[in-house]
Write a structure and sequence with these properties.
Belongs to the N(4)/N(6)-methyltransferase family. The chain is an alpha/beta fold. It has 23 helices and 22 strands.
Length: 736
């Protein structure tokens, strides 16, 4: 029954957000979220006020003779006092008036005046000229209907859930900017359920909208604990995000007085210098190069080594460790590069953290969990109580969990964990910690490693390096067995290749029946790629794609229209590259120094696919552009999963994960190059690059022809790589 009720509430949240989003019209999501979330907060405190107001007015028990308009009565009950002009019933009655925007701003001012803890927190943006007042009135009506029964407590709990749900949806709508204030709930759940903040001080030095605090409170409540047993401390450098956090906490009835804001941030102006927290939870910015590290070279927080000014990953770790109590535990989300980097003293800091017995567990996360980055991420679990304290002694060992294969796609761009995924990770960790736990190493998922093994691998902490090693090292096969395995693989790949050949010929014969496609050497990838480029040129540069009679469109009198960029077919349009693809910089913190001899994944630099890496950040099908120097403007299509390093731009097509339209187009579209002595390409110019966008049916028809060609290219590459691997592995095993 409870589950059904939860489902109803979730559906209500979804329906409500869709309705609110319709009222957004042309307003940017980053602005609109403050409009909506401010109103939800206003509704919450008004409902809380009205509930207590009714009790005081009734005058029973402790409220006998009390004045319902006396602010002190509300402060005594830890309820915000809401002046008459700010009460929801008053504002709702004025929702259709043209002055409603000013009315709400005045209400926010009045609430702050009566409640000093809210000073400077509430949004006062409703009277702006660009805010449609009719839409604002509709939004007030919508939020005014939030209730699932007559009990105010139910309504208040729902408002809290709605606020949290809307935060997530606005983060989704804002994309990269959204990730600056919101950490996906499933990641926060893993962190909280693993460190278990039952009782003590909880600290987040990069607290965003307060998700870590909300989840900690939920954890205590779900385990029948006392919410008053935890106190929260936080710091945030973005003022608008800080305001979202304070409202989020207030809706949940959590004391946010120790959540602080300043523009300098946690490194330059630590507002909790003397705090020693029992639990630290954080998702700080990944690979931040603008953290003023050059000003903090001799800071006392760097007990395990000075972090590089070019990357804040190890500054964040040490800042949090500095604030840990003698038996404190912490969970911190960082980019995967934190597990492998050996440059700029980072490898030495990681070694020192391990040798000082601080690292308890590493969890590798799947891609696409975050709204703001495609970079692979992990969670570091640090503990100062690894010598026992109720659990077994874990000195000298670390648990590695590879969660990169878990989760499911909630839409075409975002992944999420199920409850079962979360339980699998958290239960594994708790069983590993227990004195009589039922933990065991599981191939492909988890492994306990010793410092001795880490030392052999340069103290790299990437889980799949060690978990996969179980299978790789346990070889024991002969040359003959490996040859048999390779032959079987080749038979399978050849069969796949032959089927692709047939599909390519079938698709091409449909559009070009007069050509003998059987003469093509389908095992020559250079020929296949040249054929793909020629087809793109014919379809999208010359506009001689097959018409309805399979004749070249323009040559056979197809209708054309004039644009500022020249003639294009009727029904086509001129757009920008950003409309069909997401463009990001490659990982600016990684250079070729991070390449390793036998890395599992491809490394792509401005010069091309020229190295190997221990971790991946992008899947096959993503395009890389050289962004600076000698090769500026060149495009690469890595034929396997890879990491793009410094001085590259990464282009991921939005609508089709394996469409090659953008890759082929970048060979012909004009990429603006700047600079004289050192040419370079900017991200902004690339996003604004003008391109011809065809109707969906043309796009789909082209994909149907092109996709098998590139699958065949990849098939050819797989066979070549297999021969190379076989030769390397079996050179010493082969019969003399």
């Amino acid at each position: 029954m409870a589950k059904n009720n939860n489902n109803k509430i979730e559906q209500f949240e979804i329906t409500l957000f869709k309705a609110a989003d319709k009222l957004r019209k042309n307003m940017d999501a980053a602005e609109y979220k403050h409009i909506v979330l401010g109103l939800i907060f206003l509704k919450y405190i008004s409902d809380s006020f009205e509930e207590l107001y009714a009790k005081i007015k009734d005058g029973k028990g402790d409220f006998s003779g009390a004045n319902p308009e006396d602010p002190d009565e509300y402060r005594a009950e830890n309820v915000f006092f809401v002046p008459q002009i700010a009460r929801w019933s008053y504002l709702h009655s004025r929702a259709k008036l043209p002055s409603i925007g000013k009315d709400i701003d005045d209400a926010m001012e009045a609430i702050e005046k009566e409640n000093p803890t809210l000073k400077g927190i509430l949004p006062k943006v409703y009277a702006r000229p660009n805010l449609d007042k009719a839409a604002l009135g509709g939004l007030i009506d919508l939020i005014g209907n939030i209730a699932l029964g007559n009990e105010a407590a139910k309504s208040k709990d729902l408002l809290g859930r709605v606020y949290e749900y809307f935060l997530g949806e606005f983060a989704n709508a804002e994309g990269k900017k959204g990730g600056q204030f919101y950490t996906p709930k499933s990641i926060v759940r893993i962190m909280v359920e693993m460190i278990e903040p039952y009782k003590g001080r909880v600290f987040d030095p990069a607290c965003g909208s307060g998700g870590m605090f909300i989840m900690s409170e939920k954890f205590v409540e779900s385990h029948k604990g006392n919410i008053d047993d935890i106190s929260i401390y936080g710091q945030e450098s973005n003022q608008t995000t800080y305001r979202l956090c304070r409202m989020n906490l207030a809706i949940r009835g959590i004391d946010g007085s120790q959540v602080k804001w300043n523009t300098e941030g946690s490194f330059l102006n630590d507002l909790h210098k003397d705090l020693k927290a029992d639990f630290v939870l954080a998702n700080p910015p990944f690979n931040d190069s603008d953290w003023s590290g050059q000003l903090l070279q001799n800071d006392p927080r760097w007990q395990y080594g000075t972090p590089p000014a070019s990357n804040a990953n190890y500054a964040w770790l040490q800042h949090m460790i500095y604030h840990l109590s003698p038996k404190g535990v912490m969970a911190c989300v960082l980019a995967n590069t934190s597990l492998t980097s050996q440059s700029n003293n980072e490898g030495e800091i990681r070694k020192s953290l391990i040798e000082n017995d601080l690292v308890d567990c590493i969890v590798a996360l799947p891609k696409q969990l975050f709204y703001n980055t495609g970079i692979s991420a992990c969670i570091w679990f640090i503990s100062r109580k690894r010598t026992g304290n109720g659990d077994r002694k874990r000195t000298g060992e670390i648990l590695l969990i590879d969660g990169s294969r878990l989760g499911h796609m909630t839409d075409r761009t975002h992944r999420d964990f199920t409850d079962a995924d979360i339980s699998k990770i958290t239960n594994t960790y708790h069983e590993w910690r227990k004195r009589d736990g039922k933990y065991f190493d599981e191939k492909g998922f988890c492994k306990t490693i010793t410092y001795e093994l880490l030392n052999k691998h340069g103290f790299i902490l990437t889980p799949d390096r060690y978990i996969e090693t179980i299978e790789k090292d346990d070889d024991g096969t002969s040359f003959e067995d490996n040859l048999k395995t390779m032959n079987q693989f080749l038979i399978e790949q050849t069969k796949i290749g032959n089927e692709l050949n047939k599909e390519i010929i079938k698709n091409l014969e449909r559009f070009y029946p007069d050509y003998s496609w059987n003469k093509i050497d389908f095992n020559n990838s250079d020929i296949l790629e040249k054929m793909a480029r020629d087809l793109f040129y014919q379809w999208f540069i010359d506009f001689n794609f097959p018409d309805t009679k399979y004749k070249p469109y323009k040559e056979n009198g197809g209708k054309m229209v004039n644009t500022d960029s020249g003639e294009i077919p009727v029904g086509w349009r001129i757009g920008q590259l950003s409309e069909i693809a997401k463009i990001d910089w490659g990982n600016t913190s990684i250079t070729k120094k991070s390449y390793v001899e036998n890395g599992k994944y491809l490394g792509v630099s401005a010069a091309g696919c020229d190295g190997r890496m221990e971790h991946k950040e992008y899947d096959f099908g993503t395009v890389v552009i050289s962004a600076i120097g000698e090769y500026c403007g060149r495009t690469y299509l890595p034929l396997e999963d890879f990491t793009a390093i410094k001085n590259t731009l990464v282009v991921k097509q939005l609508n089709e994960p394996f469409s090659y339209f953008a890759y082929l187009g970048l060979s012909f579209w004009k990429i603006e190059r700047r600079g004289a002595a050192q040419p370079f390409i900017s991200k902004g110019d690339t996003e604004k690059m003008q391109i011809v966008i065809p109707p969906k049916e043309i796009f789909d028809a082209f994909n149907k022809v092109i996709n098998p060609i590139f699958q065949k290219i990849r098939n050819n590459n797989s066979q070549i790589q297999l021969f190379k691997k076989f030769r390397e592995v079996n050179l010493l095993k082969s019969p003399k």
